[in-house]
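Entry 14. Structure prediction run on the chain below.
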Amino acid sequence: MATASSPYDPQSTVDLGAQYITRTPQYAQKHQSFYDELLAHGILKPLTYPIEGTVMKAGDSNFVAPQGVSSIIKHYLKESGANIRFRQWVTQINLRNNKWEVSKETGSPEQFDIVVLTMPVPQILLLKGDIVNLISEHQRQELESVSYSSRYALGLFYEAGTKIDVPWAGQYITSNPCIRFISIDNKKRNIVSSEIGPSLAIHTTVSFGVTHLERDVEEVEELIFQQLENILPGLPQPVATKCQKWRHSQVTNPAANSPGQMTLHRKPLLVCGGDGFTHSNFDGCVASALFVLEVLKKHI
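Output returned:
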């Protein structure tokens, strides 16, 4: 759920990850309080512009985040009242005096009573320290079986007043080896302003992402531009671009026997959650969060 801003205008934004949220009848009931809250705060609004090529099932509803999809995360972080620290790259987790000592790439280790890991599962398996021996053989096999698709996303920012004349807000592409989805991002979020430049989001196919996963981002960006010219010829030159590599994009094979979470250690508590234990959409994340919460409540 990543939203990037233009370096020239912070009001010009583009969603580089999740594009919109589809609520199924099952989750409309199960997660009603979450949807009600986000809709009441204006963080989600119904998607009104057409997305060409989308397959809608009976009873499904689509929503967009007018301030960008990252506003959903910002809302929950703010509501939590927690002290959030970003860009802390965790490298080791060790047991010290019945607490967890967490080491980062820079800075001193810190101690915690409880640790919850929600990063992609392959990154959990890269952690060093006592955690390596705390994962049972059965759990390790299950974690190693979790797989993800990979893709690139390219965001394009344009000058205010630029016209991009297409009848849709988003379109799934089926006939291109590189590009799978294009969104006129400001239009998708129903933000049409003469003072804010439009933005485009382009998602590549998974096969393109896997093939070019280890290439320089600049080279990949050029390849995407070449294919984009075939789909939308004559696009104006953007004033800025942002290319995002999603090494772990969407879960293709979740942890089969650990629905919602996996508890690696009970005292002190170390639990894993996230879409690797459910499925890669908003409701999958909420479902995992609720499973983790139940474990925490029993522990506390």
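The longest strand covers residues 90-96.
Filed with the rest of this week's runs.
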